[in-house]
C-alpha cells in the first residue's frame, strides 16, 4: 500500500518560509515486541528482576549521597526529582512496601571538571528493602540514575507509581556513543540544543558532535575573527555567542556528555570566504578567476594551501577554539575536498611545480599535515573524516 503524507515545516530564518514535503512510502509493520513497563534502555549487562514491586511516592521520595557538594550530582538529583513530579499520582494504597529513598554511593569523591574519553560509566543498582546505587565515578552515577528513572512505571489503569525489586550490574559496551547535530545548514535555537542534550542523557549517549559551521553558514561567534560570524551567519540573531557555547558545554557536562566541535576544512568553507575571501582558492573558468563552473566548482572554494597566510589564519583560529571547547578532541573535517577548483587554478599549478608536488593527493597531504601540526602544538588530539585516507593521503 502506498501512502501519501504532506507536512508543513517552518524553518528558523529571519523570515518564515513555508515548505511542503510529500512522502511516499510503503507502510510495513515494525518487527519486535514492545518493552514491558519499567524496562531500562539500553538493556543492561546484567538485569535480575522480580515480580515483587514497591510503591514510589514522588512527594516523599529522596536521593541521598555524601557528594552533595558536587554540582553534577545535585543537578542530576534535581532533574530526576522533576521527572518524578511530572507524573500525576494518587495517595498511596495497597499492600506493597513504599520506597522512600535511593542511596547513591560514589567511590571517587572528586567532583570532575569535564567528561573524558576514558571516563568510567559503570554502576550497580539494587532496588529492594534497601535501595542503593553504587559507582566508581559520578559519570556512572548519572547512568545509574537514568536507569532508575526508567524502572519506575505506572499501571495502565491507576495513578500510582511502582518499581520492581531489581538487581542491575551495568557498564557501556562502547566508550564513544555520539549524536551529531548540524547547526550550519539548519540553525537550531538554544532551547532545541538543550532538549537534545536531555534526549541524549535519556538514551545514555555521551558525545555531542557539534557540526557547528559549514558552507551554508558560520553561526559560531569567533572572538579572534568576528567578521566570520557577522558575514557568514544566516542573520545577526542566528548565531551561537560565546555565552551560548559555554552554556551548551556546561549543560552537557552535567549530563556526562562531551562536546566535540567540528570546524571542517579545506572544503565546506564557503561561509568562511564571505569574510576572508583570500582563504579560498579562486576557481578559474574561461581564463578568468572567481568564476563558477556548474557541476565542477564554485567561484571560490576550498582553502588555498599555496598561501602562508592560510595557515597563519588557521593557527590563530584553532588557538581560539581549543580554549573555548575543553574536550581533548577537535574535529577537523577534511572530507569532500574535491580538487576541481585547484585543478582550474594556474596559481595552484605554479605552486605545485615550484614545490615538486605532482598530484592533488600530495597537495591535500600538505594542507592536512600543516593543520594537524597546528593542533598537535596545542596539546589537543584531532578527529577527521575518512575521505583523505581513502584517497591515499598520509595522515600521521
TrEMBL record:
Pfam families the record matches: Glyco_hydro_20, Glycohydro_20b2
Domain Beta-hexosaminidase eukaryotic type N-terminal: 40-151
MF (Gene Ontology): beta-N-acetylhexosaminidase activity
Origin: domain of life: Eukaryota
One GO term of the biological process aspect: ganglioside catabolic process
GO cellular-component term (any): membrane
Catalytic activity: Hydrolysis of terminal non-reducing N-acetyl-D-hexosamine residues in N-acetyl-beta-D-hexosaminides
Keywords, ordered alphabetically: Glycoprotein, Glycosidase, Hydrolase
All copies of domain Glycoside hydrolase family 20 catalytic, residue ranges: 174-393
Gene3D superfamilies membership: Chitobiase/beta-hexosaminidase domain 2-like, Glycosidases
EC number(s) per entry: 3.2.1.52
Enzyme class name: hydrolase
Keyword Glycoprotein part of the UniProt annotation: yes
Residues at the active site: 336 (proton donor)
Keyword Hydrolase: yes
UniProt family annotation: Belongs to the glycosyl hydrolase 20 family.
Protein name in the entry: beta-N-acetylhexosaminidase
Native organism: Magallana gigas
